[in-house]
Design brief:
This protein is of the alpha/beta class. Helices cover 31% and strands 28% of the residues. The chain has 14 helices and 24 strands. The protein has helices at residues 14-25, 40-45, 47-65, 80-91, 94-104, 157-160, 177-188, 208-220, 315-331, 359-364, 380-383, 413-425, 430-434, 447-450, and strands at residues 2-10, 30-34, 108-111, 114-118, 121-124, 128-137, 141-143, 169-173, 192-196, 223-226, 229-237, 240-247, 250-256, 258-261, 265-267, 281-282, 285-287, 300-302, 307-308, 344-346, 351-356, 369-375, 391-397, 403-410. Helix 1 (14-25) runs parallel beside helix 9. The N and C termini lie far apart (64 Å). The model has no long low-confidence stretch (mean pLDDT 96).
């Protein structure tokens, strides 16, 4: 027997939940299915739990910065198992909370592995058959495969977030968000931390001048970043692992107690049997048009990390893509996602934030630029907390006075980047931003001086 719905959503992360609730509230019959606990990467295996662990690192770092300024850190330390228990006060509640919310909205909630068996039909665990007028693929992303001998000894970000104890010597593979964020937590928890990156500089999507400053700050807290380095193999030893590396053309050995995969993620779509639904995809996800509709099967839509769009793999992008996809399924194709002014942050300590164009991108686009750069380490808001690593760079169109990009490194700058995002999305000029009257003394009151 095949159950019929107006909409089936595969995956129950942020894109999925928003789309399912929107369509259910409009009177559609909706079903969701996921083989993993409801909540997706952000709530359970990424953004939220990571930042709860970061809280412990923030306190250690804050006390260290104030050493000799009235604070004596003494034996202040992170109790990793207690910190992990604190994280679970959030993550353990999320799956039942999300499922309860979907149930209240009349959404049928299913658990299991979904595969297509027809153009608009799926099977759950090879048994339950479901069909729908529309199907939304919102399965998110997963760690990309690292094909080296001994790759089975790597742990991924999900497993790191479940560690009951933190080993002494940790190697992070890859120079992106995951490696840097976890490394900054682990270093404050007392681990000896290395990051290897095969490129000439890590965090390629961020301003290189600010990345250089962050690398210096990372080294100060014991994080060693080695560039132009490839992982060759991993071998298990009695006391841990022996890692063979190619460092700028030279073979080197490294020992570690734990090796963490932070070398990128790919769309989690390879197990869906997309070919049976006639759905075309590539390495970036399901191929969709500007309305998030499959280019090869009009009954299928995709959103979030599972879709090949111009949007970055970020939770806010998944949220609004889920809403756009739902609107188009309900009313016909009319809405397009707006990717202008979407900020992104690496939650190191201090954090590194970006919105809009890099300086090199703006120059290549032919704009006449005014670039406002500031070393903000001596500004009151950073002096107050003892932080000496802080800087900003704002890329401005000199002809229109509009912000093309903003790049910030410093405490609480993840909040400040939102002002620049809002200005870009509302088409405000720097003169408009300077008119803002801020509470003082607050970090927000620095915005005008950054311009």
């Amino acid at each position: 027997m095949t159950q019929s719905f107006d909409l089936i959503v595969i995956g129950v992360g942020m894109a999925a939940v928003n789309a399912a609730n929107k369509c259910a509230s409009s009177g559609w019959s909706v079903a969701v299915v996921d083989e993993l606990p409801y909540g997706g990467t952000c709530a359970l295996r990424g953004c939220d739990p990571k930042k709860m662990l970061r809280r412990g690192a923030e306190i250690i770092d804050a006390a260290s910065l104030m050493n000799g300024k009235g604070i004596e850190p003494g034996n202040l330390a992170i109790n990793w198992s207690d910190l992990m228990a604190f994280k679970r006060t959030f993550t353990d509640k999320m799956p039942p909370k999300i499922e309860s919310g979907l149930d209240k909205n009349g959404v049928t909630t299913l658990h299991g592995s979904a595969k297509f068996i027809g153009k608009n039909i799926i099977a759950v665990d090879g048994k339950t058959r479901l069909q729908a007028k529309k199907i939304l693929i919102a399965t998110g992303a997963k760690p990309r495969k690292i094909d080296v001998p001994g790759a089975q000894y790597l742990i991924d970000s999900t497993e790191f977030l479940e560690l009951e104890s933190l080993p002494k010597k940790i190697l992070f593979v890859g120079g992106g968000f995951i490696s840097f964020e976890f490394a900054h937590i682990a270093a404050r928890a007392g681990s000896d931390v290395h990051i290897i990156d095969r490129g000439e500089r890590p965090l390629k999507g961020f301003d290189p001048d600010l990345v250089d400053k962050l690398l210096e700050r990372s080294k100060e807290v014991g994080i060693e970043v080695v560039q132009k380095t490839n992982l060759i193999s991993i071998a298990q030893e009695d006391s841990g692992y022996s890692v063979t590396l190619d460092v700028d053309g030279k073979t080197q050995k490294y020992s570690a107690d734990l090796i963490v995969h932070g070398a990128g993620r790919v769309p989690a779509i390879d197990g869906l049997d997309l070919g049976k639904a006639g759905v075309e995809s590539n390495a970036h996800g399901v191929k969709v048009n500007e309305f998030l509709q499959s280019i090869s099967n009009p009954s299928i839509y995709a959103a979030g990390d599972a879709a090949d769009t111009k949007g970055a793999p970020l939770t806010p992008v998944a949220v609004f893509e889920g809403k756009v996809a739902a609107s188009n399924m309900l009313k016909g194709n009319h809405a397009k996602p707006d990717y202008e002014g979407v900020p992104t942050v690496v939650f190191t300590i201090p954090e590194l934030a970006r919105v809009g164009m890099l300086e090199e991108e703006a120059k290549a686009a032919g704009y006449k630029l005014r670039i406002a750069t500031n070393d903000t380490s001596g500004w009151y808001s950073n002096l107050r907390v003892g932080e000496t690593c802080a800087a900003t760079k704002v890329i401005i169109d000199d002809e229109t006075d509009k912000i093309l990009g903003a790049h910030l490194l410093g405490p609480e700058y993840a909040e400040i980047i939102n002002f620049f995002s809002l200005a870009m999305r509302l088409d405000l000029t720097t003169s408009d931003l300077k008119k803002m009257v801020s509470a003082y003394p607050s970090v927000g009151s620095d915005v005008g001086s950054m311009l």
